Amino acid sequence: MLLSVCPLVGHRGLTLNYQVTGVFSSAMQFAGHADYVPDAENRWRGRWIGSNGVDHDLTAVASDQSFIANWHNAEVETGQTQYRSIGPGRLRVTDYVMREEGRFELFASADYDRKTDCEETPDKSQ
Fold first, then answer.
1. Which pLDDT tens digit goes with each residue over 83-93?
2. Among 12, 64, 81, 114, which is 20 to 30 Å from 43 by CA?
3. What is the pTM for the complete model shown?
């Protein structure tokens, strides 16, 4: 699994890329991309685009130790992803899908270690 979270061009938001490869093969099984832009203090909006052809509208709330994103596609599914700091350079990502009863059900969780810094992106507005 690969997860990268980096600033958008000009540091105006966040861009997230996610990729899962096969356990017994290096072939990519799923990839997704999201851009998040703040719309008010600690509130974010964005769009998730998945390689499975399912896109989601995103809303999120940030705090010092977490970033909680709700994702929604009225035709497919609604869920939540929690990004939580679990120590210096460590991040736990936990995914939930909303069931018909209105409750969130865990479907994935993974811990990530910070490996490298993001590439510098030039501010094209200057």
1. 999 999 899 99
2. 114
3. 0.84
